[in-house]
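Hey, sorry for the delay on this. The queue was backed up all week. Below are the sequences that define the complex (chains, strands and the ligand SMILES where applicable).
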Amino acid sequence: MPDLHMVVCVKVVPKSEEIRVDPETMHLIREGVRSEINPPDMNALEMALDLKDRHGGRVSLLSMGPPPFETYLQAALAMGADHVYLLSDRAFAGADTLATTYTLAQGIRKLGDVDIVFCGEESADGATGQVPSGLAEWLNVGQLTLLTNIEMDLKRGVARGHRELKGGYEILEVPLPVVVSVTTACNEPRFMDYRIKPWAFEAGRVTVWTAGDLDADENHIGFNGSPTVVSSLAEAPSRERKKQFLEGSPAEIAQLLLNVFREDLPQ
Amino acid sequence: MTVSLYNPGEEQKSILVFLEHEGGVLANVSLELLGKGREMADGLHWSLAGLLMGHQVADLAHEAIAYGADEVWLGEHPLLQFFTIEAYAHTAFQAVSDGKPSVFLLGATPNGRDLAGRLAVRLRTGLNADCSGLRIDPDSGVLVSEVSGFGGGVLALIEMRTHRPQMATVRPGVFTPSEMDRNKNGKVIEIPLVLEEDMIQTQVVEREVGSGIDLTRTPVLVAGGRGIEGDFLMLQKLADLLGGDVGATRPPVDEGHIERQRQIGQTGVVCSPEVAICCGISGAFHFVVGIEKANTVIAINSDPEAPIFDYADYCIVGDVHQIIPEIITALRSEGEIAHA
Ligand SMILES: Cc1cc2nc3c(=O)[nH]c(=O)nc-3n(C[C@H](O)[C@H](O)[C@H](O)COP(=O)(O)OP(=O)(O)OC[C@H]3O[C@@H](n4cnc5c(N)ncnc54)[C@H](O)[C@@H]3O)c2cc1C
Ligand SMILES: Nc1ncnc2c1ncn2[C@@H]1O[C@H](COP(=O)(O)O)[C@@H](O)[C@H]1O
């Protein structure tokens, strides 16, 4: 079998702890908010780099988003990946899951001979885990989701994954090529390698592909390719809470809480 | 525009619910979706159908009817014994393209999400993930899905007007099942199936799935955050005394102090206890969405400025390692008095 070619789908997202919403317009306030690589995607990248360490091959990063994503992708490249591809075009804007998965799938088709596509479990700002499965459908390949571990049997050309389920697990085998999603925090992403950092940050390191480069059907991308529309944004009606501060010594506070339990808990 | 496999003019006025099961028991989330589906269908005089796939699962069809389904579309096949994406997506696609439901709801579980993601693409339709509320507009028949926007505080209402089915996933614990009614009538309709071994690429090598921990229904939740520094034993004692269970924020789960199944919040469990006690938790939106439905929230945090106090009924500024042992002592001595 020729060298493994692994693609890791990474998204750049605003840091979740810094996001604020403008109460007037209900839009996200973007000023002053820093971005980062979607943390779960770092676990996906680590799983791919670990396979590369063990079996050789190469790792490509693939992302759909605007040009400012480039520096974040270069930082990920410096962790030990080989190539970066950014799918960037105004026509991609407004994509929901259907359009996003189509666009990423076109990128993967253009790369050709891909063996494993890695995704994070979910994007911090996104469709919560619907991309990996949709991507596998557009590519018409198998899938292994929510993996905590992957092993390759390169002779047979299959991937064997340990999948986390509620109250247990499954071990599944799927022939390559396959789309994989990785359980958040299942591994410890490595740091940037300072020896390759200068190379990773060289100008022109990121290959940018537009809709034209991807031969994308304009009916399937961006707003056009997105069946869902946001019809309104409203402030979430948060439940009114008493916000009553209990004062006193720990023992006194404990007594106050016993009263709360007596009132609120059915005996 | 993309065009879905069938359009609103061709739809049946029905809601379809994916019925998950494990060990011969229907999943709670499926019962919850039947409950919500029943409520929406009644308001519109639509019908409610369940999609049941498996091997020797016909008994569960009657269960689903008792929980509100008018019809159960049944895919029975030895190759459906375990969930594999190929067999399940094939069967579900067949059922949906024959029955053309207007709405298709699935639990946001590992298998529900996998199936939803595949089918939405195969049907060329939209998918609203992790909805916190659902409503069907009585005039247009359009499903309005409520999704909480990231960063919290924002609710987005999402619709699809020109694509069918209108797909949505909902997490366990968000809706409530209807009362079971053994006398309710319903129809079981077999899905004509052609499934061959060579259509299935996924091989289930090993599988061990128990019932797992279910925090969605615990009456008392004692949740610990980074501030309790891994001392879940202390929280377990408190939970035992109150007849409840222990949950956690994400950091202690990531650090391996406690099982992932006990994580509360956006990527964990949504629960609705009578009382939730949040210990050493800062109150990030990702966590707070998981306790929004609690009747009473108690928060203990050493930082008087901690955001969690904005989401609590009773706020205690102090060290968890001092306060919680006192509560445990007080509960114990109260118990002794009661038994004396
Ligand atoms: C995509 C995504 C999804 C996420 N999903 C979830 C989720 O489902 N659930 C979840 O919980 N998080 C989730 N998170 C993480 C979330 O954003 C927060 O980081 C997390 O909830 C913080 O946990 P914490 O409150 O335990 O820790 P911290 O924020 O570190 O807070 C610890 C608190 O403990 C207090 N403290 C310290 N010592 C003591 C003491 N001795 N006594 C009393 N108080 C003390 C401190 O004052 C502080 O307020 C998610 C994040 C992302 C990006
Ligand atoms: N715009 C994007 N570019 C690259 N990868 C993405 C993008 N959106 C989602 N993904 C991948 O899909 C995973 C799941 O995302 P989601 O389904 O949006 O929760 C992420 O962790 C990424 O690996």
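The longest helix of chain B spans residues 320-339.

I'll add it to the shared folder too.

S.
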